[in-house]
Amino acid sequence: MITPQNVKVFEAAKLLGKSEQFVRIGLQRNILPFGFAVQMSSKWTYHISPKLLKEYIGLADQ
User: For residue 15, is it within any domain?
Assistant: First the structure.
């Protein structure tokens, strides 16, 4: 069985040294390559892949 994994926005922001708003807007605009954002009515939902985030920040080999 596949277990879904997701990094929280605040965790990604901390790892990147950026604000949570930076991560949210980057995902909403398809600028950041480690996840995506889906607009559900007036709210946004975020998925951040642990694997892609590690690759993005250079921790994939560790």
Answer: yes
Rounded-to-integer distance, Cα 1 and Cα 24, Å: 29
Q: Which range marks the domain in which residue 28 is found?
A: 9-57
Q: Classify residue 33: in a domain, yes or no.
A: yes
pLDDT tens digit string along 22-53?
999 999 999 999 999 999 999 999 999 999 99
d(CA 44, CA 55): 24
In this structure, how many other beta carbons lie within 10 angstroms of the beta carbon of residue 56? 18
**pLDDT of residue 1 exceeding 80:** no
What is the count of structural domains for the chain?
1
